[in-house]
Amino acid sequence: MTPTLWAVLSAGALALHVPAGPPCRVRSPVMQQLADGSVATDIDELMARHDPILLYASKLLPASTAADASALYAWCRRLDEIVDDPSAISVDTQARLDEWQRRFDALCAGSPADEMDAALAACLARNPSLGRQPFVDMIAGMRSDAVECRRIANLAELELYAYRVAGTVGLMLLPLLGADPAGAREPAVALGKSIQLINILRDATADAALGRIYLPRETMAAAGVDEEDVLALRCTDGYRDAVARLAQRANALLVEAEAGRTTLPGLGPLFVQIIVELYRGYLAELERRGYDNLSAAGERVRISTSRKLLATARAVGKVLFQRERVPG
After folding, report:
1. In the chain, is it the N or the C terminus that has fewer CB atoms within a 10 Å radius of its CB?
2. What is the pLDDT of residue 51?
3. Averaged over 153-166, what is the pLDDT?
4. Total domains, the chain
5. φ and ψ at 217, to 5 degrees?
6. Rounded CA separation 98/55 (Å)
7. Domain encompassing residue 71
8. What mean pLDDT is predicted for residues 81-92?
9. Closest to 199 measured CA to CA, from 301, 296, 72, 305
10. d(CA 324, CA 220)
11. Vertex 147 angle, CA 143 and 148, to 5°
């Protein structure tokens, strides 16, 4: 499973960064042409299969920005699929991650392996301030999933993981939105981390099928939750309490992201607010279910199209109301 330096934990995550390599560049005009061709449709189809809510939100961005964001998404999604292959053993997954790192190094050197890699190479060329570091950190986060019986010790470890696999996405998007990294970095990471925590809560059944439990052991122990019950999809009262606690943390991160939306130029504040409202919808649905994300016939926590439209309208209203209150 897979995306704010408001806490010491996040600062610790940054301290673990691998030294960045040379900037990425595109040497091949042919690869740039490929990146601007039919691959856009392929990426849209990939996004529609896995994260339609992000495809919906991306359509609100300017065309060039949406193309770059889609290229980033395709790279992240395909990396995620390496780790989420249920038929793979951990040693094979680690080998595939090694190959993915080599592919990333190659596209940065101007030799992308396919059209989606070429799309990312073109994105990096158009946004030189993006750099390599978020991608390196994300691969490191994915490596932590490439183990047997994935477990998380405590909330600090979970948030470090959430930064690496999703907070990095917020950092990737900042140059695309023309944001000032000094002011926008923390809320961008907060948004990515909150999305990841909420997706963990949405995907508990699928993760259990893979033998993974992302609720921190420390949190489960405090609530009297047995790992065997989780893997057997038995939703106990203690489990509901543990889920509620993590949902509260995810909501706090959404609040952090929402407060920082004004650090973004143009349509950035609206884009962030829409994502915040949509993911709050997931938390509201989870609460409506009594924080049971295991017993609903294996269904992922979802919200209807009408609720998505309502969330979008609410986001537009909040952003416009704030602008009206700001003195000219």
Report:
1. C
2. 76
3. 96
4. 2
5. -60, -35
6. 29
7. 22-131
8. 86
9. 301
10. 45
11. 165
* Residue pointed to by tokens 């537009």: 316
For residue 162, CA distances in Å to 35, 73, 114, 309 come to 29, 16, 28, 27
In 23-128, alpha helices (H)? 29-35, 39-50, 52-58, 63-83, 90-108, 115-126
Helix (H, G, I), strand (E, B) or coil at 204: helix
Return the C-alpha torsion angle 243, 281, 265, 179, nearest 10. 20
What pLDDT is attached to residue 267? 77
Q: What pLDDT does 84 receive?
A: 78
Phi–psi pair at 77, nearest 5 degrees: -65, -45
C-alpha 213/C-alpha 239 separation (Å) is 12
Chosen domain end from 73, 101, 131: 131
Look up residue 55 and give its amino acid: L
For residue 181, name the pLDDT band (cuts at 50, 70, 90).
confident
Q: Report the 10 Å Cβ neighbour count for 300.
A: 13
Condensed to tens digits (0 to 9), the pLDDT of residues 22-47 reads 444 444 443 444 444 566 778 878 87
User: Is 187 in the same domain as 273?
Assistant: yes
**Do residues 216 and 302 both lie within one domain?**
yes
pLDDT, residue 29, reads: 46
pTM greater than 0.85 (yes/no): no
121 pLDDT band, cuts 50/70/90, is very high
CB count in 10 Å sphere of residue 55: 19
